[in-house]
């Protein structure tokens, strides 16, 4: 009798402790190109890449405990969010798939996880045939990622490609991505997928800030000698400095709250 009582007490205590320590960890997978990538994962980041960032590199910081309430409508019984940034520079929807990068994610996807996908910079690069994907192919690969995400019980979220820092006309930044943002919107409607129009959000914000401010503070434009990794300086209106990466990550997080 005494032994039985101790067993019951132990089981009750284990149940109570489990209720206090249980955590549902939701993984948000980011797939896309260099504008999303996490460069801090590379060796010698400080000396070889800094201040280059992708917005995905800055995204984890938004998922602190007090902020989870703003996105709980998208996440199932979540206690913790882990951002797993699998984006890689130079990748289009096709090359991301062909290299097995999507397969690696698919194998680990869990019910309740999230896959956020932002492609287009390289899909539309006709001058790089090894990357280029026409509009029909682009849409088809997005459909594949969406279908397989849903097969795992995870949530797909589509993003239109973030703006580059050109072309500017009459004080406003305009779309440089041709028909690719519209293609994302069409797939989102067709498959009833949540959409963040990051192209529009970033163009509007950059236009409000002005070309000079955006060029100097958000994109990789700076003189020689300012950063160890770029002794000759840099003129790059596609990729982000730290402030630009943080800003885009904030735009994405704010948009998630409104989905």
Automatic annotation (TrEMBL):
Keyword Translocase: no
Keywords: Hydrolase
A GO molecular-function descriptor: hydrolase activity, acting on ester bonds
Top-level lineage group: Bacteria
InterPro entries assigned: RhgT-like (IPR037459), SGNH_hydro (IPR013830), SGNH_hydro_sf (IPR036514)
Gene3D superfamilies recorded: SGNH hydrolase
Domain SGNH hydrolase-type esterase: 31-211
Similarity field: Belongs to the 'GDSL' lipolytic enzyme family.
UniProt-recorded name of the protein: Rhamnogalacturonan acetylesterase
